[in-house]
Amino acid sequence: MSLKDAAEKVREKAYAPYSKFKVGAAILGQDGQVYSGCNVENVAYPEGTCAEAGAIAAMVAAGETRLTEVYVVADSPFPVPPCGGCRQKLAEFGSPGVVVTMASADGIEKSMTIGELLPGAFGAEHMEGN
Ligand SMILES: O=c1ccn([C@H]2C[C@H](O)[C@@H](CO)O2)c(=O)[nH]1
Ligand SMILES: [Zn+2]
């Protein structure tokens, strides 16, 4: 299944009774497998998790820790970029050149790399010597 199809399919499973904003994310692992996740909200609002985090958790649980492509879709009039926390999470497992495609519900797409989404990222190199 394509990343687009996987993201659209998992978006239908999103649990978003509070924001009513359903998001689906699919990532391609270096192993060639597609991993997907949706946002899962909670009545204690800060405990909700993003779609990207769910997809990353599925990938790591399957034993893969590198991602090579990302697709995110939301029920929005225009493509929605990952939140700040998800940018950092994506940067943990993907190189700066990895392309993140964001899509609106009616198929408008915008692509940016992880490096563009998170310039000047905090990384392991900043902790050298510790
Ligand atoms: O890239 C994004 C942006 C938002 N959300 C979720 C979090 C929350 O459940 C809802 C509204 O912010 O959308 C994601 O899953 N991914
Ligand atoms: Zn997020």
Describe the protein's architecture and organization.
This is Cytidine deaminase. It comes from Falsiruegeria mediterranea M17. Its EC number is 3.5.4.5. Keywords: Hydrolase, Metal-binding, Zinc. The chain has a five-stranded mixed beta sheet with strand order 2-1-3-4-5. It has a single domain, classed as 3-Layer(aba) Sandwich (Cytidine Deaminase, domain 2), CATH 3.40.140. It is an alpha+beta fold and 130 residues long. It contains four helices and five strands; from the N terminus they run αββαβαββα. Helix content is 26%, strand content 23%. The radius of gyration is 14 Å and the shape is globular. The structure holds 2'-deoxyuridine and zinc ion (ZN). The site of zinc ion has 6 residues, from α3. The site of zinc ion (ZN) has 6 residues, from α3.
What's the short version?
The protein has helices at 3-11, 51-61, 84-93, 114-117; strands at residues 23-29, 34-38, 67-74, 99-103, 109-113.
Defining key terms:
single chain; 130 residues; alpha+beta; Cytidine Deaminase, domain 2; 4 helices; binds 2'-deoxyuridine; binds zinc ion
Tally of strands: 5
- Assign the CATH topology: Cytidine Deaminase, domain 2
Bound molecules: 2'-deoxyuridine, zinc ion
Strand order of the largest sheet: 2-1-3-4-5
Q: Helix count?
A: 4
Span between N and C termini?
43 Å
